[in-house]
Amino acid sequence: MKIAIVQGDISTVEAEALVNAANNELWMGSGVAGALRRAAGPEVEREAISKGPIKVGETVATGAGKLAARGVKYIIHAAAMGAGAGASERSVREATLSSLRVAEQLAVKRIAFPALGAGVGGYDVRDCAETMLGVVREYAVKNPNSGIAEVIFVLWSDETFASFSQVLNDGQPKA
Q1: Over residues 94-98, mean pLDDT
Q2: Which of 65, 63, 52 is nearest to 22 (CA)?
Q3: 72 backbone dihedrals φ, ψ, rounded to 5°
Q4: Which of 105, 136, 153, 170 has the greatest number of CB atoms lying within 10 Å of its CB?
Q5: pLDDT band with cut points at 50, 70 and 90 for residue 121
Q6: Is residue 173 predicted with pLDDT exceeding 70?
Q7: Secondary-structure breakdown of the chain: helix, strand, coil percentages, each rounded to the nearest 5
Q8: Residue numbers of the domain that contains 126
Q9: Helices 42-50, 31-40: inter-axial angle, 10-degree rounding
Q10: Is residue 143 assigned to a domain?
Q11: Looking at the 3D structure of the chain, how many domains does it have?
Q12: pLDDT above 80: residue 154
């Protein structure tokens, strides 16, 4: 399983599935969710809300709306935080793992993640990088026959991009 880190807007990435940094009510407000809602259209938010609320740490998949034109088939809404509540190591770990499992069920070969919980969720960026990269590496080891060929971390800010790059290069994520 290849791991890539890029800086930019997740709504422009070519992958079969994009992960939305969601709350457990599945409203698509600002940040990553807002960017995906603007690019995909309101039908994605309506579909997501119809599947909620969900528990923190869980995920649901929806269609990709207007993003389908770029090869995106699914948006996986990962609830790394509750509505009005912050993210934690546990919630980020569970949401990342759940996203990978859903991607596997959907036969996704290429999935793109934002930094779950590190924006409005308030989870420390370095801790987020260690947690998420650790989950992906652990998943790859435990699932050697996984159909997921590539996990891309798409990070908006310079700080987040630098933290994820450093953790990936150091090879020291939380396991």
Answers
A1: 98
A2: 52
A3: -80, 130
A4: 153
A5: confident
A6: no
A7: 45, 20, 35
A8: 2-170
A9: 120
A10: yes
A11: 1
A12: yes
CA distances from 43 to 46, 59, 101, 129 (A): 5, 18, 24, 31
CA gap 23, 86 in Å, rounded: 9
pTM greater than 0.90 (yes/no): yes
- Evaluate whether residue 175 is within a structural domain: no
- Nearest Cα neighbor of 168 from 123, 131, 121 is 131
Q: Which helix (H) or strand (E) holds 74?
A: strand 74-81
Answer whether residue 55 is part of any domain: yes
Dist. CA 41–CA 8, nearest whole Å: 20
In a domain, 166, yes or no: yes
Q: Which two tokens stand for residue 112?
A: 């793109």
pLDDT-derived band at 170, boundaries 50, 70, 90: confident
String of b and e for 95-126 (b: at least 16 CB within 10 Å)?
bbbbbbebbeeeebebbbbbbbbbbbbebebb
Q: How far apart (Å, rounded) are the C-alpha atoms in residues 133 and 27?
A: 26
- What distances in angstroms separate CA 80 from CA 7, 89, 93, 171, one per listed residue? 21, 9, 8, 23
For residue 55 the two structure tokens come to 């528990």
CATH number at residue 42: 3.40.220.10
Q: What is the pLDDT of residues 39-87, one digit of tens each?
A: 999 999 999 999 999 999 999 999 999 987 778 999 999 999 986 778 9
